[in-house]
Amino acid sequence: xxxxxxxxxxxxxxxxxxxxxxxxxxxxxxxxxxxxxxxxxxxxxxxxxxxxxxxxxxxxxxxxxxxxxxxxxxxxxxxxxxxxxxxxxxxxxxxxxxxxxxxxxxxxxxxxxxxxxxxxxxxxxxxxxxxxxxxxxxxxxxxxxxxxxxxx
Length: 152
Description:
With 152 residues, the protein is mostly helical.
C-alpha cells in the first residue's frame, strides 16, 4: 500500500492521496480478473495509481502544491525550507519526483521501488541519483538567489 500511496502523494496533497489510495484498491478489486500474473499484483496496483488522472478529472482533485503538505507544527524557518524543497520536488520530471517521494517520504528501498514501479533496480537508482542531483542544484541556485538579494 505504501508504494501506491507514495505515487499518489507525489502528485496530490496528503488527504487526497489517502482517499485516492483507497479508490485505487477498489478499482483493483473490481478489475482483479484482468490481472494475468498474481505475482505482479503490487506493480499492477501502482500502475492503476499512475493513471489516476482520469479519477482526478471526474472528482476535481487538485494536485499538491508545496504549501499544502508542510507540517503546521514546524517552526517558520523549517516550514519555509520544507516548502522550498517540496516546491522543487514538484517541479521535477515525473520519474524523478515519484522515486524521490517513494524513497524520502515513504522510506522505501530502491528494490521496493523497483518492484512497485516495474522498473529495474538500476533504473530506480539512476532516477534517484538524477533526482537528488537536480534537487541539490535547484536548492543551491535558490540559496544563491536569496543570498544575492540579501546583499542588495
